[in-house]
Amino acid sequence: MEKGKKVILSGMRPTGRMHIGHLAGVLTNWVKLQDEYECYYEIADWHALTDNPAKAREVNTNVLGMVRDWLAVGIDPEKATVFRQSYVPEHAELHLAFSMLVSVPRLLRNPTFKEKLSEIRKRKGMTRMTLKVGRLQVEEELEQALRFLREEEVVKAERMLHSLINRAKEEVMERLAEDASVEGSAIPPEISYGLFGYPVLQAADILLYKGEIVPIGEDQLPHLELTREIARDFNRIYAPVFPIPEPLLTETPKILGTDGRKMSKSYNNAIFLSDPPHVVEEKIKKSVTDPMKVRRNDPGRPEICPIFHMHAFFNGDEAEGIERECRAGKLGCVACKGRLVEVVTEKLAPIRERAEGYTDGEVWEIVEEGSKRAKEVAERTMAEVKEAVFG
Ligand code: TRP
Fold it and tell me: How far is the CA of 70 from the centre of ligand 1 (A)?
C-alpha cells in the first residue's frame, strides 16, 4: 500500500448476496474510492450477531455470497484490503479498551439503540393488552368476593380471595422475571450486552486502522460521532494515538424495492445482482409503480416509482426522456418496465458472470489474505494502545 494516502475504513454486516440497493448506495462508491485512498473494507461478522446470536449459523454462507458480489462489482483485493472482523481478534481487544471510555447513559442515547428498544416495546405492547383483559376479570372476581362477604358466605369469599391472591403472586413473579415495566425505563431482556455495545465495537473497527475517512449512510452518523468522542477521550487520557475520523456522505441514487419501500432483503422486495434474467423480469413486471397511474395515458410521478429509480441508476442515457414522457402520460408502465428489464439484465450479466467465476476456495483465500494484511496493521495499533494505556 502506498504511503501518503488517507485511510478509509468502511464495513458491512454479512447479509448474503448483494442487491441493487447495495450497488447504488455503497458498492459503486467503494469501487471509486479504492483508487484514491488506502481502503479497508470490513466484513463485520461479529456485528451480525448483535441482535440474534443464532445468526452465526448463516454467517459463513453470507460472507461467501457477499464477498463474491463485492469482487464481481469491482472491489479489487489488490487495491483495497478486504477482511473479516472475526479473523482479526484485535477488534475485540480494542473494543474492551474502549468500553471503559464510554458511559452507560451515553450508549442509552444512541438512536439506533433507542429504535431497537422501541421496536421491542411495541411488540410487547401487544402482551399488555392481554394483561389488561386479565385485570378486568380479576376485578369481576373481587366484586363477587365482596358480594359473598355481604351475604356472609365467608367460606366462599375466602376461597375466591385465596385463588385471586395466588394468581396475583404468580403474575408479579412472572412479570418481574421477564422484566415487568414495559413502558417504564427498564431494558427488556431481548437486548443483549453486545447490542448495547454495538457502536463501541464499530469505533474499534474504525480506529484499529486509524481510519480518517468513513464512507457511511446518514443513519450511521451517530455511531461515527461516538467514535470521534472515544478517539478524543483516549488521546486525552492516555496518549495521542488516534486520528479523529470524518464521515464521507456521498450523494447516492435512491433505489426503492419492488413494493415501493426501501430495498432490503428482509422486506423480500430486492433485485439481487445474482438474479438470472427470468427472475429479474418477473420481479420488475410484478413491481409497483405510481398507484395514481392506472391507465397507460395517466400522468405518472417518477419520483415515487421504483421502476424509474432503477432507470435513473442503470439507464442514465434514457432516464430524462422516460421521466418526461411518464409525467406527460405518454409512456405506459408496461413499456417502461419492458425497457428496464432489457437494461438491468444487460448490466447485471457481466456482474453475475464475474461472481460465478470464483470458486468458494478462491473467495476464502482472498478473505484470508486480506485479513492477514489487516491483522498486521491491527497488531501495530494495539501495541501502541497498550503502550499508551499501561506504559
Ligand atoms: N454498522 C454498520 C452498518 O450497519 C456496519 C459497520 C460495522 C461499519 N463496522 C463499521 C460501517 C465500521 C462503517 C465503519 O451499516
Answer: 16
